Amino acid sequence: MTMVLWGSAFSSSKSVVEHVPPAVGAVLRFGGGALALLVAIRLFGDRRAQVSSRNGWRAAAVGVLGVFAYNGFFFWGLSLAPSLDAGILIPVMSPVLTSTVLVLTGKERAGAARATGLVLGLVGAVIFFIGVGGSAQGGSSRLWGDVLFLLSAVCWAGYTLLGPRVMSGVDPLRATTYATCAGALLLAVLAAPDLTRVLWSELPAGVWLNTVYLAVGAAALANLLYYRGVATVGPANASLMMFTVPVVNTLCSTLLLGESFGWLQATGAVVLLVGAALAATRGKLPTCRTAPAGQSPAETETPRRRSTT
Q1: DSSP string of 104-172?
Q2: pTM for the full model?
Q3: Where are the domains of the chain?
């Protein structure tokens, strides 16, 4: 369910950006998402949980990278390139970049399978960009849009790497809410000049329906479902599900928006997807462990296994 919501968000965001400036589209999505998450905390959050001001501000600071910068590049890219490209580059390049940084900094070892996967991922990305450059669909604007999508993937990889350390001491729902609220406020400042130029009364009903779907479904509900899923099957299995996002996005983009790409881009996307999957799994499929009542699979792992994860 989470991956369906996330995968369909790319084409849904594209529908919004076709009627409003990119910065305004980002504010509509994550401003609404912030409100939805605040409601979720009120309804589902642990009211006895205490969060220190230091941890709260640290979690909010991560939102500058994971919400503000990520979505600034993402929505700007959507104004130049199809959502089809975003749904391939961002969810697949993010784990490739994350693994590359971990290997280069010596925090994880690069076995043969992972090294092969990283190389394939980078080769697939190069083929994809070559295909965009030689494509008659979109031309140079599509290429620049894909570059912005790549920058979004860099931001998300940084958010992934910094998140566990910065958000320690804060439960995931509250940490995500603080980050989303902080990023949404900065996006509102960025979009302020464009907000007054939008003819709000003339926006089609579809824009508002997509905005509600993005805020409630792709932001608030998807995060709640993702945290429940991680607690049930563990982070390793949950991360593998990310590779279904390009499939969902491709179906939505082609069927609902009529987008497409050439054979060279398709080849690059396949190579990129295979490389990312190989790098993430290291050539082995993780197994789902049965946890005792009240514990998640991650809590039943040995200290060494948990540290590696």
Answers
A1: HTTSS---HHHHHHHHHHHHHHHHHHHHHHT-SSSHHHHHHHHHHHHHHHHHHHHHHHHHHHHTTTS-H
A2: 0.76
A3: 2-283+293-308
